Amino acid sequence: MITAIVPIYNERENIEPLIKEIFEVAEAVPISEVIYVDDASTDGSWDELNRLRTQYPPLRIIRHQKNAGQSAALWTGIKAAGNDFIVTLDGDGQNPPADIRLLWEAYNTHKETMPRLAVLGERARRNDNWIRRFSSRFANGLRASLLKDMTKDTGCSLKLFKRRDYLNLPYFDHMHRFLPALLMREGVQLVHVSVSHRPRAYGQSKYGTLDRALVGISDILGVLWLQKRARRAHEGTIYEELN
Fold it and tell me: Is residue 181's pLDDT more than 90?
């Protein structure tokens, strides 16, 4: 079964329509749990989530007392998840939940040949202003050339992976931007799926472009360091796990 993790910060107007879409997808994809992590919102998001809990019993809500950022919110939600599979998506509604089905189908197509597998969405066409598109292309190109993570769009939050693979990763702030490289470091194989991207219906983005780029440079250097010091399993190692 799958747990959907949605981190939010001041997304009150986007909460109800997105939850409705997620539970519509759950009729075709085995999503049995949806966890919203409210990263200390100040716009009434927490009250809105509380209101919707009675309407959607599989909905779980968690709140940070202090704003800690997207990586921390994802980590909180994934640690609390009760299922083996995790799907993540942004709380702003720009990732259509219907595309979760594409990720699940890709997983089932490749799972026999790739026992350790993550499926990553890549936005076919990004519906953002030109500044964010340009900065994203620059950052993705720099990251991919240095980290060799074979991923064109790490900024797409729509991802499917196993919970235990994620919890094996070294945690640091902003780690969500480097999931492909970090997963590969742990021996997880990646499959990329083209997904759609919608304009934001309500509210504004909670992050800028220049500040992310400046932070990203030091983060890339840190991930390069981690890659060079990865645990190396012997080729062909076989292990057995008792359930």
Answer: no
